[in-house]
Design goal:
394 residues, 2 domains, eight-stranded mixed beta sheet, five-stranded antiparallel beta sheet, 11 helices, 20 strands, globular
Length: 394
């Protein structure tokens, strides 16, 4: 059973004052709950240890995919294969951040990997800023969370320069390089999230700027530009698979820019290997029966299972099937054209009201921030964000 604590909700006016505009869902219900999940220090430590272990396993699985040319099996578009290989082979293509989605971890339920949102994970602002503000607003100790996400992002931006070295040495090696941050112009959530990352990079010591994607210039031989100004790094809150499938010319241009060493793209193209849910099948092959994993196959299982597209978001096109493959529950969506995986069903932990909880743990060099989504058996775009509190520190 998930233990929760009722608290005073943050007022809409305050949320908007800090740039959090997506506080109300389309059905006019609050996106942020008036509860916090109570987590023990041991449970927080277990989440931290789990994602650190999982990232190492993910890296092994990605290397296996590259070594055995399994890109097609993971649904990777062919026009990104060379870009993925180049970014994987060169350490300067640093993975800035991602989010592991996990079942269990509270109420005695074992932690299991559901998927890894490695490229363009949502809920960054909620996890780093809003849940901390919620804790403070209710008079709790500000340190009573597993939440060093913002500081971890700053440190990881420094690692673009020092790589695996000491981030305190950043100033010694930094040579004035600039990062351009971009997203599409139709989403205030994407814009605010991107600008939060820009602020973290600026506080880390980089020169930064922002431009919507349609204002960014790409030149195969010269690099990436805003107006006449060139940038050594380009952060894009645009999924790699969308670039490959919807913007083929851009995918080819980015390949040339990386090959010509004119710019470095964040997150790197190789994060698409982690982002593909097909990697779950590779993980199961490499680490069968690992306690953090669920059995996953490209073919139906002979047990209750979840069928989901290799690339998809917010529960779209996800189905829960029984052992015979009959549909028990499902969501419609726009990702039905992608290949699918079949993953062993694992029930989410529930509270006294029967709400399901999925943990999201951000990873930036190491595990660094915990938050929860609350909803039904399939978490969709109406699921709620729930902050947490470490009981022993409250």
């Amino acid at each position: 059973m998930v233990e929760t604590l009722h608290v005073k909700p943050l007022e809409k006016a305050f949320l908007e004052s800090i740039g959090f505009w997506w506080h109300t869902d389309p059905d006019d219900t609050a996106y942020l709950t008036d509860t916090l999940v109570c987590v023990s220090e041991a449970e927080a430590q277990a989440y931290y240890d789990a994602v650190n272990t999982l990232y190492e396993m993910m890296s092994e699985a990605a290397q296996y995919v590259i070594d055995h040319a399994l890109f097609h099996e993971l649904g990777i578009p062919f026009n990104l294969v060379n870009t993925i290989k180049r970014s994987w082979e060169n350490d300067v293509h640093w993975h800035t951040y991602g989010r592991f989605d996990l079942s269990g971890g509270v109420g005695g339920a074992p932690i299991k990997l559901i998927e890894f949102n490695a490229d363009t994970p949502t809920a960054l602002y909620e996890t780093a800023i809003v849940q901390w503000a919620h804790l403070k607003y209710n008079g709790f100790d500000e340190a009573a969370q597993f939440n060093t996400l913002y500081e971890a992002l700053k440190e990881n931006f420094k690692r673009l320069v020092v790589l695996g070295g000491d981030t305190a040495e950043f100033g010694k090696y930094y040579e004035g390089w600039k990062i351009l941050f971009s997203c599409v112009g139709e989403s205030i959530e994407d814009e605010v999230t991107t600008k939060l990352l820009q602020t973290a990079a600026k506080e880390a010591g980089f020169h930064t700027d922002f431009a919507f994607i349609d204002a960014v210039g790409f030149n195969d031989e010269e690099g990436i530009f805003k107006g006449d100004e060139a940038f050594e790094y380009w952060f894009k809150l645009i999924p790699w698979e969308n670039i490959a499938l919807d913007e083929g010319d851009l995918a080819l241009s980015l390949e040339a820019i990386i090959t010509n060493q004119k710019a470095i793209i964040l997150n790197p193209a190789y994060t698409l290997l982690f982002q593909s849910k097909g990697i779950m099948k590779i993980l199961w092959d490499l680490f069968p029966n690992h306690p953090l994993l669920l059995e996953t196959s490209f073919e139906p299982l002979s047990a209750k299972q979840v069928k989901k597209p290799m690339f998809g978001r917010e529960g779209a096109n996800v189905e829960i099937l029984d052992a015979q493959g009959a549909r028990l529950e499902g969501k419609e969506g726009i990702y039905g054209h992608h290949p699918v995986i079949f993953q062993a069903y694992e029930p989410f932990a529930k509270d006294a009201q029967g709400h399901c909880y999925q943990a999201g743990v951000f990873f930036a060099y190491e595990g660094c921030g915990l938050g929860f989504r609350r909803g039904g058996e399939i978490l969709d775009n109406y699921s709620k964000f729930v902050g947490h509190m470490i009981k022993e520190k409250a």
